[in-house]
Design goal:
Chain lengths: 326, 286, 534
């Protein structure tokens, strides 16, 4: 069995290659089409004179040949310098950090919600496979799996904000709210419910389905039968043996889902005016802010890679029988 | 999203229970109905969806001949829905086809060649699996301007990795099987081994994966159109929801109806996909 | 004070100055103001807070609250003293003398001197401000004989500079903070030390910007408000909900969807002010690429306009905002506007016969002409208008393909080398004078590849150039009006640009907010006299 260290080093190196590959692909793609950020800035400025866009290009180094720009970008990236965002008027790192918190809060809540509820629902369905309860949960999961994110968000706003008036329709905090910390947190929580639920539903459905089949599979395995034969109660069998093992594929899936969820957050943040990365990224694409986009995509891929790494480690911790080679 | 869907479809050994046949059949029937609506839209609304059919914002069931009402420009929502089905289905199928071909080529090459080619191709695949897919699709569509073709290709570009991995895995396991070994022994041309012997054996799993990819592609296209990144010259369901969003208080039907259409289509594709999985997935044929 | 400000713009050869009198129009004080309170306004996230380096829309709305201009303009466009107590232009319009108010300080306590003015003009406006680069192109130096006097020297007559001395056009920035730094990336652009009635406190990216009362403001008792919270809400539906819940008092520059604006207006506590956007002269139009062989014949352009039911578009797409435009000069610029021009009523028969005359006959599927249409990629309204145009032109046999694109691609297609477009539905601000805001689209010398909002249609007509150039140079206001009337007739006859509608750049506000429309820049004012009624 290879040691943790060599495993980590190998995986880190692979991850590094992947991230570099992503940066290269994005750099190339973003520089293919005609037009650049200076055009957009001259446009939003209402025109300007012929020299204005050129002056901006010179200022931002966009007048350099593309190969030089690429080399410049990669060398500063090695120093973890993501460059300067000219549409946000600040270093890319700062622009990302300013928004990262909100996105992380939204995503982690959604993941937690999806994971806990999904695993729970999958457990119940798997344990009652073939019974009415299983059918109900399976149908719910099927529905959650087919509902477009943005449509669900609109329906929830229609119901909970417009018709019932129970929950705020958007934003992260009540405007101008000044109160003790717990009141502030409560306020954020209230704003978080609809977007987090909207983002969670699709993944909840995936986790529930996966957990269900995984439970069925594990429950039929020899070591579970042995436990039963030893006279363990059914509840304990599920709690001690089935759950942990059945959760493994769900964990893998969780790692794979981070990237997809980032995409979903673009839509959710748009609908609910959540002040996170997603919306900023969307605007950056339209403004052709290449540095900011590259920065966001770089950070997201790092995020995905790190999560996958964590999942692998968690995996071997839950089930030491699984080697680190896999 | 793609990965999730594929994993659920392929790695879910539901040995205990096949889903009822009736559900599978009704899924197919419903899909056929939507396809029929898409194909015959031209017969019912020969002038296309882009004509004023009545007063703008006519609610459903209030004007004769306009069962689903009209939108902001007085267009018939029913006509938009039928023509929108074309776009959703076309993009869903075409992008999946493109992704499947790309995935098969890359997976087969990696699985057959092995060695450093395999290594390189698998790293390449991982790169595309790691890029946040929906974000990347948005980037591609914005950068290359939204048309049916660019949307289709952008979705294909982020959807192929699971197919490639699957095909590679099948190749690795199949090429060590006896029948492939014996083909090699009798000196069969490698191309023939690949095309006549190994590939046909992968098809059932590729079809199972693809059916779910279609559903994902439909959702992605709808999401793009909702963000205003659909082809502006076609009626699309996601775009209809986005247009309705501005008037969701006064005319909620304009967002509810097309959203429901997306939901039904995706649901049917999933049901059919699962049915196919039950019937075709090699792991389930005992 | 009675001097018509526009005379300055035209380079009238006489010395022009205005006396140092304080205060705005007395009408603004009809009600006694309420002191204190927090005003909550909505804005799209700006890229910075300093207008001196950018003319971006959201900045122009917030920056004048943090920075004073040399002057401010009243509703009739007369300059009012702000930082400067007098501004005097010489007879030859090549020397402008600015005298600053005594005792002004920056928000950090440093004194404001003529050196700040000189630095801002030479190092900032003429280098980095998109319009300032041309407005101050002829500026050679700024002399500072004493702490309060700045003398601007121009290499050629530049009387129109008198037109651009307010906080969003010529913003004086602190020299001690900018000198020797990279001006575009100076941190002060995000957290400015200003000079205006409100001080910058903090900016939570994506959430809010907080401004508080400047206790040391030079105007006694002003500002009235204690705080301004600027909420950065991008989504227009969320904005509407915030208005409804009275979580916010005001927002400018068409802040919500047109449908929501009409709905909100019905609420007893919401109003859409009738004024406060005159200086923007916002209008929508369709530019036609007349270089294209199939669009060169004016009959085709006339046919397109005849095929469009613009009344219906205003009713359904624009929710009754604005009115059908007759030409490139919006009716809000009443001094120069004329309705006495050729008009093109909605008449599909006529459109078809014009197309026939121009030689466009239908093919097998009834299509006479295939055209592309590029909507300006800002906001949801242009795509909808484009869809409406596509729908209407199909009726007369013109098959339109809408091409959506991001901003960079759009500018390259329409304004870039090669002008790769047929039609574009776009909008622009005519500003306060046709020479500044409208001429750019019709003047053949403004066909410049790579410059957004230049003459994209490729329309070049010697007679038109002659009219525009003499109007720009004409000192006599009456003759100038006559020339602009001639211009409008010519523009409506040749139709390189198809007028669609004049669109008010309206604000939405809670009726509690008073005194917010005291200049034609409306929400781009300083708000020093704005207050919240009980």
């Amino acid at each position: 069995m290879p040691s943790y260290a060599s495993f980590l080093i190998r995986r880190l190196f692979q991850s590094f290659l992947i991230v570099v590959g992503i940066v290269i692909i994005n750099f190339v793609v973003l520089n293919i089409p005609p037009g650049d950020m200076a055009d957009v800035m001259a446009g939003t400025a209402g025109g300007g004179d012929p020299g204005y866009a050129d002056a901006l290009r010179e200022e931002f180094g966009l007048d350099e040949p593309i190969t030089i720009q690429f080399v410049n970008y990669m060398t500063s990236l090695l120093r973890l310098d993501l460059g300067y965002s000219f549409t946000r008027n600040m270093p890319v790192m700062q622009a990302i950090m300013d928004r990262l918190g909100a996105t992380l809060l939204l995503m982690s809540t959604a993941i937690l919600l999806a994971f806990v509820l999904g695993v729970l629902m999958g457990m119940i369905a798997g344990k009652n496979a073939g019974k009415p309860l299983d059918a109900v949960i399976s149908v719910l999961a099927l529905i959650g799996y087919a509902t477009p994110l943005f449509w669900l968000g609109l329906l929830l706003i229609l119901l909970f904000t417009i018709n019932l008036g129970w929950l705020p329709s958007g934003g992260m905090k009540t405007i101008g709210m000044r109160g003790p910390w717990w009141q502030q947190w409560l306020d954020i929580g209230e704003h978080l419910i609809l977007p987090a639920f909207t983002l969670a539903v699709f993944y909840l459905a995936i986790f529930a389905r996966l957990m269900r089949s995984s439970v069925i599979e594990v429950a039929g395995q020899d070591f579970v039968r042995t436990a039963r034969a030893k006279g363990m109660t059914e509840g304990r069998v599920y709690l001690r043996h089935v759950t942990a093992n059945a959760m493994l594929p769900v964990l893998t899936m969780l790692g794979l889902q981070i990237g997809g969820m980032l995409g979903g957050s673009v839509v959710v943040e748009t609908i609910f005016s959540w002040p996170g990365l997603g919306r900023m990224t969307y605007d950056a694409i339209f403004a052709r802010d290449v540095n900011l986009l590259l920065g966001v995509l770089f950070m997201s891929s790092v995020c995905v890679v790190v999560t996958n790494l964590l999942v692998d480690l968690l995996y071997s911790w839950i089930d030491p029988r699984i080697g680190l080679n896999g | 999203m793609t990965d999730a869907a594929v994993t659920v479809a392929t790695e879910t050994p539901l040995r205990r229970r096949k889903r009822p046949r009736a559900v599978f059949i009704s899924g197919i029937a419903m899909l056929a109905l939507i396809a029929l609506a898409a194909l015959t839209a031209g017969l019912f609304w020969p002038a296309g969806p882009w004509v004023a059919a009545g007063e703008p914002y006519t609610p459903p069931m209030t004007a004769p001949g306009l069962p689903l009402g009209t939108d902001v420009l007085g267009r018939d929502v029913a006509a938009m829905l039928a023509y929108g089905a074309r776009v959703s289905m076309l993009i869903g199928i075409a992008s999946t086809l493109a992704a499947a071909i790309l995935g098969i080529v890359i997976g087969a090459t990696a699985g057959y060649a092995r060695g450093w080619v395999d290594d390189a191709l698998m790293r390449f695949t991982e790169v595309f699996q790691t890029i946040p897919s929906f974000m990347f699709v948005i980037v591609l569509v914005v950068i290359f301007t939204p048309t049916i073709a660019t949307i289709t290709l952008a979705i294909a570009v982020v959807s192929w990795p699971p197919v490639a991995r699957l095909v590679r895995a099948e190749f690795l396991s199949l090429s060590s099987r006896e029948f492939v070994q014996s083909c090699r022994l009798i000196g069969m041309h490698p191309a023939r081994i690949v095309f006549a012997e190994i590939l046909p054996n992968c098809f059932s799993s590729v079809i199972v994966v693809s059916s779910v990819m279609v559903a994902t592609a439909v959702l992605v296209e709808a999401g793009l159109s909702f963000l205003g990144l659909g082809d502006p010259n076609t009626a699309s369901w996601g775009g209809m929801v986005a247009n309705g969003k501005a008037v969701i208080r006064s005319s909620p039907y304009l967002s509810i109806i097309p959203g429901f259409a997306i939901f039904v289509l995706v649901l049917c594709i999933n049901v059919v996909g699962e049915g196919l999985n039950d019937r075709l997935n090699p792991r389930m044929r005992n | 004070m009675e001097i018509n400000r526009r005379l300055f713009t035209l380079g009238l050869g006489s010395a022009v100055a205005w006396p140092a009198l304080g205060g705005l129009t007395t009408a603004a004080y009809a009600q006694s103001p309420v002191m204190g309170g927090t005003l909550r306004i909505i804005l799209s996230e700006p890229v910075g807070l300093v207008s001196a380096v950018s003319s971006q829309g959201p900045i122009a709305q917030i920056s004048p609250k943090i920075f004073d201009g040399l002057v401010e303009y009243d509703l009739d466009m007369n300059p009012q003293p702000q930082m400067a107590t007098s501004v005097e232009m010489s007879d030859d319009a090549q020397t402008m003398t600015v005298v600053l108010r005594e005792g002004l300080t920056w928000h950090d306590g440093e004194p404001i001197t003529s050196a700040d003015v000189a630095f801002s003009a030479m190092e900032v406006w003429s280098q980095f401000h998109p319009r300032g680069r041309s407005t101050y192109a002829a500026l050679t130096e700024v002399e500072t004989p004493d702490e309060l006097t700045a003398i601007f020297k121009f290499s050629k007559p530049s009387a129109f500079v008198m037109n651009a001395l307010n906080a969003s056009e010529a913003q004086v920035v602190p020299k001690h903070i900018y000198e020797g730094t990279d001006i575009l990336t100076n941190p002060n652009n995000l957290a400015p030390v200003g000079s205006g009635p409100f001080k910058f406190v903090e900016w939570q990216q994506g959430e809010y910007i907080l401004l508080e009362k400047n206790e040391n403001y030079w105007k006694e008792d002003e500002p009235y408000l204690d705080q301004i919270v600027v909420l950065l809400i991008a989504d227009s539906a969320s904005r509407a909900i915030a208005f409804e819940a009275q979580e916010v008092e005001a927002a400018g520059a068409i802040p919500v969807s047109l449908a929501d604006a009409r709905r909100l207006e019905e609420l007893p506590f919401i109003e859409i002010p009738e004024s406060g956007y005159e200086a923007y002269g916002n209008n929508n139009f369709m530019e036609v690429n007349v270089r294209r062989e199939y669009l060169a014949d004016p009959k085709v352009r006339q046919a397109i306009l005849h095929a469009l039911d613009r009344e219906a578009m205003i009713k359904n797409v624009y929710f009754e905002f604005g009115k059908v435009a007759t030409g490139p000069v919006p009716s809000t610029i009443s001094t120069y506007y004329t309705a006495d021009v050729p008009t093109y009523e909605f008449d599909t028969e006529k459109a078809i016969s014009l197309l026939e005359e121009a030689g466009f006959t239908p093919d097998g599927s009834g299509v006479r002409l295939n055209l592309t249409l590029d909507p300006l990629p800002y906001g949801p309204i242009y795509p909808t208008v484009a869809a409406s145009i596509k729908q209407q032109l199909a009726v007369v046999g013109i098959e339109v393909t809408i091409r959506s694109a991001d901003a960079a691609t759009y500018y390259q297609r329409v304004y870039g080398e090669g002008n790769d477009f047929d039609l574009t539905i776009t909008g622009a601000s005519a500003l306060t004078d046709p020479t500044i805001g409208v001429q750019r689209f019709f003047w053949s010398k403004n066909i410049i590849a790579g410059v957004p909002f230049s003459n994209a249609s490729g329309y070049a007509d010697p007679e038109m150039d002659e009219i525009l150039e003499s109007a720009a140079a004409e000192p006599d206001p009456a003759k100038r009006i006559e020339l602009f009337h001639k211009f409008q007739v010519k523009a409506a006859t040749d139709l390189p640009i198809l007028p669609i509608n004049d669109m008010p750049y309206f604000a939405v506000k809670n009726t509690r907010l008073q005194n917010s429309e005291v200049s034609p820049y409306g929400f781009g004012g300083s708000f020093s006299t704005a207050y919240l009624a009980e």
